[in-house]
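Hi support team,

I'm opening this ticket because the web form for multi-chain structure prediction keeps timing out on my end. I have pasted the exact lines I submitted so you can reproduce it. The total is 428 residues across two entries, so I didn't expect it to be a heavy job. Is there a limit I'm missing, or should I split the entries? Thanks in advance, R.K.
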Amino acid sequence: MPSSSTDYTPQSPALKALMSRGLLEQASDLQAIDQALLAGPVTFYLGYDPTATSLHVGNLLTIMAMRLLQSHGHKPICVVGGATAMVGDPSGKTEMRKLLSREQIQTNSQRFREQFARFIHFDRGVENDAVLLNNADWLLPLHYIDFLRDIGRHFTVNRMVAMKTYRDRLDGEIPLSFLEFNYQLFQAYDFLHLNREYGCTLQMGGADQWGNMIAGVELIRRMHAHDDQQGQAFCLTFPLLTTADGRKMGKSERGAIWLSGERLSPFEYYQFWVNRDDRDVAKLLRIYTELPLDEIESLTAAEGAAMRTATRKLAFEATRLLHGEEAACQAQKASEQAYGGGGDWSAVPEVVLDIAEIKLVDLLVHPDIQAFKSKRATRQRVDSGAVKINDTPIADPYHLVTRADCGASGLRLKAGKKRFRIRLSQGA
RNA sequence: GGAUGGGUGCCCGAGUUGGCCAAAGGGAGCGGACUGUAAAUCCGCCGCGUUUCGCUUCGAAGGUUCGAAUCCUUCCCCAUCCA
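Hello R.K., no limit was hit. The queue was backed up. Here is the completed structure from your submission:
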């Protein structure tokens, strides 16, 4: 039975930290986990879906948790769900099954690894270096009959059906495909495999993973029912983060907040954090920064406009962790000067266009700019005064922009909240 | 395989006695005002196009009609029940 995280006082520094940072939702056996973490280095794992080319802020909470545990001497395994991605996750409703090639998964995994490496170490040559694995390596070679005989026998449908994730589906008469039903076995098998090959005893994941993770815990226990020394396995879940206005954290409609600097510049990343709701800042500081708790408390004790200090700290620290000190400083400086009215555009990347002159609408819709999504929308935005060139509002969508508008540092184009620095270079 | 109910714009969801439908309403998003680069609130936009008009949309393809998201045919997909 899941232990509640509220009424237990942890002994191990790792669990203590995890709990005080607000990273723990529920755990299979909190005391035993605590003991294990106290007794010595624990190898733990988290799974990631490699269907995207970059991780995003939604994944960041789990990465911070890995970082925290690793800093306490424990060993992370990042498992990329190559096999599962090859089948396609059926839980998304209208989601087409994306069949990814091995190469794509390979590339994505590589990218993930680079991003993980910002937060956890892989190659330090020490015991608790993190490891990145692909579950396709052990899931794909499985034979159905063997799998059923060796693994399937340890699962009873009765029990699976009793689990909340499945029961909700059944009670709600929401179709549950056999494939989906099997996911639990695969994930449980992952855990078993890691337990055998790497001595992994702890799985962590989002709250929605609970059923799958507990299945792994039980599988390991059953497989080792007769040897006394083995069979220790645990899982714990992280809270599902929502914003103060009740939405899921990190994924705006407009696009995910990518960790990849290529997909989202440090400046934009900083902007994401600095624009958080006041009510969320304390929680976010605990999770996404490593500031001491008492500092966080005093920072967020402020009210009103003074909250900006805390929010700015959050943005800076979060950006620093991902993109480094220098980039964070730059982003902060650019952000403050830009929005504070100063006008330092130096952090805004310069876009060079091989054009001598261009109409404003066309410029705003240009593939390299894409300030708005269509000319029609652009015209409307221009009408409502959303566009400024070199700090001068332009109301005419067909205003001709020429090289004369480019100063020494280029043309400063402001389109709503977005800003661009543009240089028009004469056509060849 | 059989029966029934469905497939509407980013999402949810009206609309099916054919025109007043580029399609109600809500959410998200975007722009503006107000602010603290926040929240709340208010205003505007929210298919595309230099636009008192034109073009392309309501699962797909055909058809009926002066005119179809709305009617007919075939097909595809989804859900529920039966086998």
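A quick check on our side: Residues 265-337 of chain A form a domain with the Tyrosyl-Transfer RNA Synthetase fold (CATH 1.10.240.10). Let us know if the file doesn't open in your viewer.
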